[in-house]
Amino acid sequence: MSLNALGVISRAFRLLGTLAGGDTPAASDAIDALAAFNAMKRAWFGTLIGPRLTSIGLSGASGQAENGGEYAIPPNTFILSAPSNPRPGNRFGVVDVNFSFSGATPCSILRNGRLLIGLAANIVLSTPGQSGRWWYRGDTGNWIQEADTPALTSAIEFPDPLIAYMPYMLAVAMAAEFSADVTAEIEAANLEGRAVLARTYGRRGRAQPEGPIGLGAPAGLQQQG
What we know:
The protein is an alpha/beta fold. Helices cover 27% and strands 18% of the residues. The longest helix is centred in the N-terminal third of the chain and has 18 residues, at 27-44.
């Protein structure tokens, strides 16, 4: 069973030796660790997951998104299709640069045959200044919106084999803040987790084959609560 955010955080504290087995972190420490977890995730996009996004202006009433584009939508009703034939880790975004999204002039995102935020439905952006970024998870055929994990009890939007690395990766990110030492085992698992993320979701050349999705975690990486 997948760890939720609190499970990853608790495991990271135990790896650092600052939390006994079976205990949960103090509320203030857990909140600080959740902030570190979200900062760590944000840093993956455009580095380990997909390309950095390039701002692209649009005109007219419709357009086709491509991997790596962040689209400035014109101040009128607009329809944007998600990238066709996406590969794992592909990314695109939308920005209401004119603060013109509304019920009368919405921007509709067409899912283009894939799930969009877990639904077999298009989405409509109708709030002034609204923006969004999405990345493609190939094993579920889903465009997932890039967002912080909102609560300690929240599920994590990655497959289980990648979640297994996250306590090690978070332990490295938190070590200085909590005055803890990083062991060679933790650092090795952190680096391997980063490599698996890049191999699974990183930018690839056109002729480079896809790596397998749902890679198994090596022995010793257990999703302990």
